[in-house]
Specification:
The structure is a single chain. It is built from eleven helices and 22 strands. The protein is an alpha+beta fold. Among the domains are: 80 residues, no CATH class; 79 residues, no CATH class. Strand 3 and strand 4 form a beta hairpin. It is globular and about 75 Å long.
Length: 441
């Protein structure tokens, strides 16, 4: 059963950015049919904005939706309600988790609401309406690995900055973001307390330029030892996306790679696709003995971004070794990704070496500044951070015991939250109404 917890972030005081965002999930899959079941909380079923079924969907009553030529055919436990233009499952409270299970893709779990339409007779469009910070935590879990809250804090800051700057990227499509790297990966709700800790510690924090404007915050897996200038990959030269030496990325999982090609594959590519005269000894040698001790943007006059795409290389940061006897060339490459902005593996190593999260960000985004929203230091945010730290410390203090199950500590966090809210609203002594809510931290 896929129980969840990140709904607690929905209770955090609102910041100046969007309260909810619309994210198209399974955007790279043709979903003909989907089953939605429920692990936590309760949901109402709406069709064309009319209530069809009230909230005992969580009690083992999955909803099935199928694309048809007329719209979305919806049924619950085998009972068919009909075909509608839009089907919505709307959560009744913040602590609501749904499992989304397309017929031809892996199941995922999400928080918030889901809206389902059928743009074609064979495909459904699934839109997750979710609180902004809940979305950010899901992005962090999908985008980076790590073992320290500051790693997730860094990713949360750059993901939040990107999302706010690009909030209308898919406006014409009827949503804010897709769930793939075209925007940012969002492949599940967040399920780890250490990621929540890093996200909460970064709450309200973004990166801005000297004028206070949100910056672009591209990132990649590994720079290979040197990041790239933005204009070497895209069109614009941005002052905060300058090439920097990045020894921290060396020796990590994605720092080196090789690819072997035949001599004819390499030369014919440039001759046929880019009209290079490979019969000219000078040009031929430039291709066969190409070296990049430091990053460059082109080989001869051909953009390395084109070469990378056409040969499906991990990066543009490579040199050529030519074996004239075997007529084989080997590309010795460094890094993984476009190379602009933050190297995730470089950031991971920096954090592990004790370098502060803000120094990491300044290293990769030259001249940028951290901007912290006034809501970030609220008592509520501090309380969540303290509680999550307590949970993580309990796990660390019992290395031989099973880690705290997410459903157990989620229940604990919800009960603590409910205590605070009830006492603030009703002003009733807790021992009078909550004597059973006793927990040993």
């Amino acid at each position: 059963m896929c129980l969840g917890f990140f709904a607690m972030l929905l209770m955090v005081p609102r910041a100046s950015w969007a309260e909810k965002v619309l994210v198209r999930i399974y955007s790279n899959v043709t979903v003909g049919s989907v089953t939605v079941s429920f692990d936590l909380g309760s949901y109402n079923l709406f069709a064309d904005d009319v209530l069809l079924l009230e909230p005992d969907l969580a009690g083992g009553r999955p909803v099935q939706c199928v694309a048809t030529t007329e719209g979305v055919r919806v049924s619950v436990n085998g009972y068919e309600f009909g075909v509608y233009g839009k089907v919505s499952l709307l959560a009744n409270d913040t602590a609501s988790i749904m499992c989304v299970n397309p017929a031809n893709a892996l199941q995922r779990t999400y928080e918030g609401d889901i809206h389902i339409t059928a743009p074609t007779a064979r495909s459904l469009q699934l839109i997750n309406s979710v609180e902004f910070e809940t979305y950010i935590a899901g992005v962090v879990q999908s985008e980076i690995y790590g073992d320290h809250a500051d790693i997730f804090r860094i990713q949360a800051i750059i993901s939040r900055t990107w999302a706010l700057r690009n909030i209308d990227k898919h406006k014409d499509d009827g949503y804010n973001f897709c769930d793939q790297v075209h925007c940012q990966a969002y492949l599940n709700r967040c399920t780890r307390p250490d990621i929540i800790l890093g996200t909460m510690q970064s709450y309200g924090t973004t990166l801005v330029d000297a004028d206070g404007n949100l910056i672009e915050t591209p990132f990649h897996s590994n720079s290979g030892g040197q990041t790239a200038n933005s204009e070497d990959v895209w069109r614009s030269a941005l002052p905060y996306l300058r090439s920097v030496e990045d020894t921290f990325s060396l020796g990590m999982k994605q720092s080196d790679w090789t690819k072997v090609l035949t001599e004819s594959q390499w030369l014919d590519y440039f001759a046929k696709k880019h009209k290079v005269d490979v019969g000219n000894d000078s040009l031929r040698n430039a291709l066969l003995f190409f070296q990049q001790p430091t990053r460059v943007a082109r080989i001869l006059d051909v953009p390395l971004t084109r070469v990378r795409a056409d040969f499906q290389l991990k990066s543009t940061f490579f040199s050529v070794r030519y074996d004239s006897l075997a007529h084989v060339i080997t590309l010795y490459g460094h890094g993984y990704g476009h190379g602009v902005g933050l190297s995730q593996e470089g950031a991971i190593k920096m954090v592990r070496q004790g370098i502060s999260y803000d120094s990491v960000l300044r290293h990769y985004y030259y001249g940028s500044q951290l901007h912290v929203d006034s809501a970030a230091n609220s008592e509520y945010v501090r309380g969540y951070i303290d509680n999550i730290r307590t949970i993580l410390a309990a796990d660390d203090g019992n290395p031989n015991a099973a880690k705290a199950k997410k459903e157990d500590w989620l229940s604990l966090m919800f009960r603590i939250r409910d205590k605070v809210e009830r006492e603030e609203v009703d002003d009733v002594p807790k021992q009078e109404i909550e004597s059973d809510w006793e927990f040993d931290w």
